[in-house]
Amino acid sequence: MKAFSIKKIGSAFGIDEYRLSNGLRVLYKKESAAPVVAVCVTFHVGSRNEAKGHTGATHILEHLLFKDSKKFNKANGNAITNYLEWFGAYINATTWLDRTNYFELVPKERVREALELEADRMRGSLFNDADLASEMTVVRNEYERSRNNPFELLDEEVLYKVFTKHPYRIPTIGLKEDIEGSTAKKLREFYDMFYWPNNATLSVFGDVSWRGVQAQVLKQFGPISMSPYPIPALTVQEPEQKSARSVSLKKHMGVSVAELSYKVPRGTHKDFPAVLLLSTIMAGGYSSRMEQTLVNTGLASEVSTFCHPLFDEGFTNFIAQCASGNSPKAVAAAMRKEIEAVGERGVTHEELAHARERVLAEGSASTDGVFNEIRTVSESTSAGDWALAYKIEQAVKKTTPVDIKRVAKKYFNTSKETAGLLTQ
Known about the structure:
single chain; alpha+beta; seven-stranded mixed beta sheet; five-stranded mixed beta sheet
């Protein structure tokens, strides 16, 4: 019988990293605060990896991997959809731009069952046309709900302008024609391209010893071979944006919305922590600049920002719901004025201190408990470095007003801007 090996790569931030002989990365953290264990398999495939004609494939596969697998199926009386829940577990999955993750929170006595299930559906999923048909109603409903959300609708139109070639321009839910054209055969081909141990990271955090985890990882995942061919790499290069772009929509959706989006570096870039702090200074909470100058003056009823570390060059968005009687164009101009002011005059030490406190507080909340922490590490993993969230926290503590002004001038200028206006 072939022997399977596991090698320790290193340790950081209380987490040990290992590599299985088939390429599977394994992250382990001992945490005994509660008698539970979180398990997460992050596949390094998201809508970023989808080609024309296959958009939405990762999301549909997320649904289908909850159908029968070789060991876990209705015929055996241990269907994936309820097997672990009988033991009091929580089980779910999510799909996004850079990843798909499958996770469980289980009583510590049930780690074996969780690992066995995840290993089996990594390569043993049995989905077919009947399973696809049964899930299409759910997928269609998710798609239609997105059509009825004004913020989501505008955001999709904006990102389609922000990126001209990169797959980030296509929403994770996929294009309607691709969703409708999905077949089990096409999805099986996609599954066979990306769902392999050497394209995945397994994380196990909680009240369990490494000795117990190691034995189960070797037993359950060790026999799975690595992919017989290289995992397809994204070769699309997004051209540099050199001038402002815009998109306008007119729909009766109950609100008017203004959105400004800017190209920013990938999550592992040294400038990203300053970008994150700048987005918080501008629209992160009641003390933010846009809250003071747009909401408190009656131009907008609310403002928000989106800034998330991505694997490739990403985006930071500022979104404002226009107050009654104010046009999206006027609100966007006010938002732009505030952003330009930072590039010209910088920010105060007090503003930076408030933003730093907020970012660090949100970071602490995101790693509070093994379930939150394992999902945060999954997001970091998909952005290119499983320790990224911890490294960003360290960098945030050292960021200065000079750094904020520099990234404002470099990334938050009109040549990198895409404006979106939704009018009722």
